[in-house]
Every structure is written in C-alpha cells, then in structure tokens.
Amino acid sequence: MGIYMKKEFEMSDSGLLHYFLGLEVKQAEDGIFVSQRKYATDLLKRFNMLNCKVKTTPMNVNEKLQLEDGTEPADARYVRSLVGGLIYLTHTRPDIDFSVGVLSRFMHSPSKHNLGAAKRVLRYIAGTLEFGLWYSHVSNFKLIGFTDSDWAGCLDDRKSTSGYTLCLGLGAISWSSKKQATTAL
C-alpha cells in the first residue's frame, strides 16, 4: 500500500508508529497494544496522587453521587481539571468510562464528596497503569456487543445510565456510557 501511495503523493516512511496524540502504540507480531500510560502517570503527578494507595475499582459500587450531598463545595476549577483529564484517558480506558461520565455530571457545582469520588478513580488508575486496548492478529474476527443499564441510578432525577461496548475479535472498538434523556418506566 505504501508503494502505491508514494507514487501518487510526496511522502516519507517514518517507520512504525510508537506515540501519537498521547497514545502509546506497541506493535508486535501477534497484535497491537494502545495505551496512555505516560499520560495517566502525568495526570497522577499533576494531582499529587502518584504514590497513593490504589483501589481495585474506579467507584464504590454502593455509592450514588448526587447534587445536594450535604458536603461543602470543592474547588470547581480543580475538579473540572481532574475530570477533564480523566475524560481524555477514556480514549483507551473503557473501564473508567461509566465512572467518569457520572463525575462529569457534577462539574458545574462539585462537592468535596464528588472530589473524593474523582480521586478514587485516580487511585484506580494508579493501580492499573498498564491497562489499555489490545488488538490481536486473528483471522476470525467476530463482532460482539455488550450492554447494561443501572435502571434509575441517578438519585437527582431517577434517570438511567446505559452503556455499551463493541468488540472486534478481542479488542474493544467502540464504547459509551451515557445518562438517558428520559426516565425509564
């Protein structure tokens, strides 16, 4: 393919892709691994969480965040910066997509409780820096989809959050977690 493109366009071959827009790409004979390890490490440094105690999940499964949680307000600029950094990290981390989506609902008036939940995601990231997306070289690709919903999980308006992940072979190619626009019956 490169030979044909060189005939048509002026270009040079820089070799294999290793780093692009904060994404680290490792290519091997059996597949490609895409991660944001350096970005995640820099994010942990920026929020003084590099040597924090790690968590095994991004959110406490029994915890429900809400607008009026009774705790004092947090520094909104700080929380927005933290959650914004986590949003960029979801490009290679579908495992944090739900948690980050929930946190982003409170960026206009974050509380100390919301900040604590955001820092918990950072603690999870600290323990899973090696996570990313693996795309193996297999000949029999199957498209597989997964969906889930929390069924009226938002305490403020009783709306559900739905999510999906599509995998081609063993690698996730598309994922989303989004609060529904209407209340499910």
TrEMBL record:
Kindly list any coiled-coil regions of this protein: none
The protein's matches in InterPro entries, at most eight in alphabetical order, are given as: DNA/RNA_pol_sf, RVT_2
The record's listing under SUPFAM superfamilies reads: DNA/RNA polymerases
Q: Which residues belong to any copy of the Reverse transcriptase Ty1/copia-type domain?
A: 5-59
Q: How is this protein named in the record?
A: Uncharacterized protein LOC109115474
* Organism from which the protein derives: Nelumbo nucifera
